[in-house]
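During the no-cost extension, the postdoctoral fellow (Dr. R.K.) reprocessed legacy sequence entries with the updated structure-token encoder. One reprocessed record is reproduced below for audit purposes.
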Amino acid sequence: MAVVREAWLDLTKEDPLEPDLPICDSHHHLWNRPGRSPGYYLDAYLRDASSGHNIVKTVYVECHESYRTEGPQEFRPVGETEAVAACTRKLGPGGNTRVAAGIVAHADLTFGKSIIPVLEAHLEAGDNRVRGIRQICLWDASPAFISYVSKGLMMEPKFRAGFACLERYGLVFDSTTSHAQLNELTELARAFPATLIIVDHAGLPLGLGPYRCKDGDVYQLWKFNMSELATCPNVFVKLGGLGMPMCGFGWQDWYKPPSSLDLAHDMEPYYGFCIEKFGTKRCMFESNFPPDKESYSYNVMWNAFKRICTGFSQAEKADLFHDTAVSVYRLG
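Re-encoded structure tokens follow.
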């Protein structure tokens, strides 16, 4: 759970670089659930999005928010789609930022083929904006991390039976797994070549627990697994997420927030490698706010991404900051 300190974030201020470059923020959340600290709903996100960069569209990704409290368990996540569609509907296409132009909802694919009515309920609830499904498959033996599922879930027949239903509706699958699980994701991608898979948070290289102080080992395993994944043409990568403390960079503990130069230096070995292996047409930048807001501000983060792309052509920048996300999520 993110611990955001606005006064601390304000210690590092920067003017936005290339402020006119159109950006589609391909991954963010909104939450306003009692007990979740801090609250981060539409007004909070819009404040960040208006900090100087040209955020024209966004993709909302599920975060267990506003679930229905009654009815069959498998249908309860539809409440999140209903809530996000309702709160962003008033913005309309004329706003400066089309928040939740695309929605990635949650469905428990272990229900197999019986998940079909849930997928259809999400599609109906989402104002024709639901473009994908995320089921977090993060698992690790270490108690340093929250394991959301059982070990090897992506290999289980019940999960794959549900996954097979996504193709019927043209839904992409947003995958949140750790660097150590990417081999399983490669097998899943090869088994379902017609379904697009989005790797969240650059494959999530972990840096706590058994992975602390093993930067070289983690990086080499991550590189190997990402290289294998890149051979699957149906796989795309989101570049972001390293601001979460579980990645082990420790920015949240600095006496003042990192600058965009600091971030670009530390992030480039990961994001640059992804771009090299997948190409700009299969990579897209994401904010992963508010979780990443624990480590840096929205404005400084986009500056860091732009610094990483110094020397790239305008067409390559367009892919990374806007066009890939708009194409994959069919945002128009």
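The mean pLDDT is 95. The chain has one domain: 6-12+19-328. The remaining legacy entries will be reprocessed before the final report is submitted.
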